[in-house]
Specification:
By secondary structure, the protein is of the alpha+beta class. The protein contains seven helices and 13 strands. The radius of gyration is 21 Å and the shape is elongated.
């Protein structure tokens, strides 16, 4: 049964995504969420339509001899759709393999996923870095069955998008398409259930900070892992 997405970007993030004002790394997380979420696909289309209506109102009154814009628009809309290219894209499904498991990657993430770095593993947790700017750490995050990420807080913003499987923390259970957003005021202990692993997209603006016991020793090193 298909998972019903429950955790979405807020309306402000969606508006910034449509306006093109989000950082590339956060926009990647939002775009991949939209690929997995029918509700946000409709919302994104509505926001694009609203933006188009606003731009149309700003156009000068149609009392001009020069109709270059209208001619260009008519030319574009008269073109035959490139069905062959679109069909090819649908068939070129990108997958990643970890722990003898193969995961399908959403379209918005497929190009970067093919460029992921070497998997780094610690126990049941593995990460593979994706190409990103200097201001964020973007990676694929794999969590094996029955595995817990130690209790931590955040020195910056953390965006975690579930791509496959399920993950839980003190606040709930998250499945494919759910987007978790945590700030420096949030503390949690993510974990998987005994019968299901999980693959996520992780976007961090700053390292995590582990809170309890010996795992605090990881703090100087975890920026290379997460």
């Amino acid at each position: 049964m298909t998972h019903a997405v429950k955790y979405h970007p807020g309306i402000m993030l969606m508006e910034q995504y449509v306006e093109g004002t989000l950082s590339a790394d956060v926009a990647l997380a939002v775009a991949t969420h939209i690929d997995l979420c029918p509700h946000c696909q409709r919302l994104c289309q509505d926001l694009h339509n609203d933006q188009g209506s606003q731009l149309a109102k700003l156009q000068p009154a149609a009392n001009t001899q020069d109709s270059d814009f209208e001619q260009m628009l008519a030319f574009i809309t008269s073109q035959e759709p490139q069905t062959k290219a679109a069909t090819k894209m649908l068939h070129d499904t990108v997958t990643v393999t970890i722990n003898d498991r193969q995961f399908k990657i959403p379209r918005a993430l497929s190009r970067l996923a093919q460029q992921h770095g070497k998997w780094l593993q610690l126990g049941g947790i593995a990460t593979a870095k994706l190409p990103a700017g200097d201001k964020a750490h973007v990676s694929l995050l794999y969590i094996d069955k029955g595995t817990e990420i130690p209790n931590h807080t955040h020195l910056g913003m953390e965006f975690t998008l579930v791509l496959s499987g399920k993950i839980c923390d003190e606040n709930g259970e998250y499945g494919a398409g759910d987007l978790l957003i945590n700030s420096p005021v949030d503390t949690h202990t993510p974990h998987t259930k005994a019968d299901e692993d999980c693959l996520c997209l992780s976007v961090l603006s700053a390292p995590l900070k582990f809170n309890k016991g010996l795992v605090r020793l990881l703090n100087p090193l975890q920026q290379f892992f997460y």
